[in-house]
Amino acid sequence: MSDIGGIVAGIKEKMKAEPDRVAKLAGLTATYQFNLSGEGGGGFYVSIADGVATIEEGTIDSPKCTVSVSLDNFTKITEGKLNPTAAFMSGQLKVSGDMSLAMKLQSIIG
Questions:
Q1: Residue 83 to residue 40: CA distance in whole angstroms
Q2: CATH second-level architecture of 4-105?
């Protein structure tokens, strides 16, 4: 199982390797906080402005959208083994803040 540093590095690599993913962020301004529970978990945030995403370990003040999920389920979501909508509906993934921003997450981390 990955630790939070590995998750952040993996998302950064995915963004570099898939320029179309970054293009989908054009015009979006948002801050997301991810709180991953369980062994190896922790927090990281994604800040998006002017088509540029900054992804760092830790927390950000006043995120527009906060996602709380176990590290295990987050890993399954990013690997395509768990549908994020199904995880939300079953209570395995919780979202607070701007729900419309939550719907755009697949473009960023999926």
A1: 22
A2: 2-Layer Sandwich (3.30)
